[in-house]
C-alpha cells in the first residue's frame, strides 16, 4: 500500500528497529545467484566499466514500519569490514531501489545530514559545492517513485556519477573522496541505520 503522498523521511533517531533482509551465506559464495528482496531482483554482480563487481551486501531502509528502499553495495572484493570497504581501491557501486514514492528534496536533505554526521568538518566543507548540486538534482525531480533506481557509481580517475533509472544525472562529482564520504551515510561511525550497515557488510547473523 502506498502512502497518499510522498514519504517524508525522518530526522536522525526517528527510525525504529524493523525487519531487515540481509545477505545470506549462499550469496557470499563465488557462484552466488541473484536474490529477490521485496520484489526487487538483486544481481550477484554488477559491471562498472570493464570491472565486474561483487554484491557485498543488501538490506532494507525503513521509516517506522514502511519500507523506503532496498540498498545494494557492490565492491571489487567482498568484505565484512566497513573500514576495508571505505578504503578499498577500484570502482564501487551503491544502488538504491525505491520501494515507495519519496520526496526528492527530503531524500537529498537526509543524505546531506547523514554525511555531515559521519565526516569531519573539514571534509564536509570540501563537499559543500557538490552537495548543493546533488541536493538541487533531487529537488528538481520533486519525487522519486516506487521502482526508481538511484545509483552512486565510483570510477577511479572520473569521480562519482549519479544515475537515475540508468541515465546519468548531471556531471560527475570530482571532489576528492566524495564517493567515500557518501558511502559513510551507510557505513560510517553514525550510519543512517546500524542494522542496514550490518546488512551491507553481509552480516547474516543480524537478520530478523
Provide a descriptive summary of the structure in words.
It is a single chain. The protein is an alpha+beta fold and 208 residues long. It has one domain: Chalcone isomerase (3-Layer(bba) Sandwich), CATH 3.50.70.10. The chain is 27% helix and 28% strand. It has five helices and eleven strands, in the order βββββαββααββββαα. The protein has helices at 82-87, 104-116, 121-141, 178-187, 194-200; strands spanning 35-37, 40-42, 45-48, 51-63, 66-75, 92-98, 102-103, 143-144, 149-155, 159-164, 167-168. The strands form three sheets. It has a seven-stranded antiparallel beta sheet with strand order 3-4-5-6-9-10-11. Strands 1-2 form a two-stranded antiparallel ribbon. A two-stranded antiparallel sheet has the order 7-8. Helix 2 (104-116) runs antiparallel to helix 3. It is globular. Mean pLDDT is 85; it is low at 10-31.
Sheet/helix structural class: alpha+beta
In the CATH scheme, the class would be Alpha Beta
Radius of gyration: 16 Å
Largest sheet: 7 strands, antiparallel
Q: Give the rounded overall mean pLDDT.
A: 85
Shape: globular
In which order are the strands of the major sheet placed? 3-4-5-6-9-10-11
**Would you give the CATH topology?**
Chalcone isomerase
Count every helix, treating DSSP H or I runs of 4 or more residues as helices.
5
Strand content: 25-35%
Number of domains: 1
Uncertain segments are 10-31
Count the strands? Answer: 11
Helix share, percent: 25-40%
Amino acid at each position: 500500500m502506498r502512502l497518499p503522498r510522498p514519504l517524508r523521511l525522518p530526522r536522525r533517531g526517528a527510525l525504529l528497529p524493523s525487519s531487515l533482509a540481509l545477505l545470506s551465506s549462499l550469496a557470499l559464495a563465488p557462484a552466488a545467484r541473484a536474490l529477490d528482496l521485496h520484489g526487487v531482483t538483486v544481481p550477484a554482480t554488477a559491471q562498472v566499466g570493464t570491472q565486474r563487481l561483487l554484491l557485498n551486501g543488501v538490506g532494507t531502509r525503513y521509516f517506522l514500519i514502511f519500507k523506503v528502499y532496498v540498498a545494494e553495495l557492490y565492491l571489487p572484493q567482498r568484505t565484512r569490514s566497513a573500514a576495508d570497504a571505505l578504503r578499498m581501491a577500484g570502482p564501487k557501486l551503491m544502488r538504491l531501489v525505491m520501494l515507495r514514492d519519496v520526496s526528492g528534496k527530503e531524500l537529498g536533505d537526509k543524505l546531506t545530514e547523514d554525511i555531515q554526521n559521519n565526516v569531519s568538518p573539514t571534509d564536509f566543507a570540501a563537499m559543500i559545492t557538490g552537495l548543493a548540486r546533488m541536493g538541487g538534482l533531487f529537488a528538481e525531480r520533486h519525487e522519486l517513485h516506487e521502482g526508481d533506481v538511484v545509483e552512486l557509481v565510483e570510477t577511479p580517475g572520473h569521480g562519482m556519477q549519479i544515475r537515475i533509472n540508468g541515465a546519468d544525472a548531471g556531471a560527475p562529482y570530482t571532489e576528492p573522496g566524495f564517493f567515500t564520504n557518501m558511502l559513510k551515510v551507510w557505513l560510517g561511525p553514525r550510519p543512517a541505520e546500524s542494522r542496514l550497515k550490518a546488512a551491507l557488510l553481509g552480516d547474516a547473523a543480524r537478520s530478523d
